[in-house]
Design brief:
Length: 129
């Protein structure tokens, strides 16, 4: 048995672009360390046309996103040089992309509704055991 699954939360590096039937974007994940931050860049390929159109419309550079998909490595040969590229592939039936928040410029402290008072809020717990 084997498992090929990547789960990432990060920010879009730039707006998504469309290459044929595939929507592509880059995702930055940042690890906080004592000696500074370390950012990794992940290439994401989305193979779901309907989700892809929503991604292009709503996900803009800086948006906070959850991505789940398969890790795919592609081999490309150009001028006798072989290069390998790693992608996170979100297929039409597996994987997901979820918008978690807007871009950094749109971020603000969210308003939290006041807690509704319950009839049990004034109840004092005087259990004597």
């Amino acid at each position: 048995m084997s498992l090929n699954r990547a789960m990432l939360i990060g920010r879009l590096g730039k707006d998504a672009d469309e290459v044929g039937a595939v929507i592509r974007f880059t995702l930055a994940t940042t690890e906080r360390r004592k000696d500074g931050n370390r950012t990794e860049w992940h290439n994401v390929s989305l193979m779901n046309e309907k989700l892809g159109q929503a991604i292009k419309q709503y996900l803009k550079s800086g948006a906070l996103v959850y991505v789940e998909g398969k890790i795919i490595t592609n081999r490309v040969e150009r001028d006798g040089v072989t290069k390998f590229y790693t992608n996170i592939q979100v297929g039409p039936y597996d994987g997901t992309v979820t918008l978690l928040g807007g871009n950094r410029e749109e971020r603000s402290t969210p308003s939290v509704p006041a807690k509704a008072k319950s009839k049990y809020d004034d109840f004092e717990d005087d259990v004597g055991f």
